[in-house]
Amino acid sequence: MLSVHHLGVSQSERIVWLCEELEIPYELVLYDRDPVTRLAPPEYKALHPMGTAPVITDGDLVLSESGAIMEYIIARHGGGRLSVPADDPNFPDYLFWMHFANASVMPAGMVAMIMGILQIEEAHPLRGALGARGVNAFAMIEKRLGEAPWFAGPDFTAADIIMVFPLTTMRAFAPMDLTPYPNIRTYLKRVGERPAYQRAMAKGDPGMTPMLE
Question: Model-level pTM?
Answer without folding.
Answer: 0.91
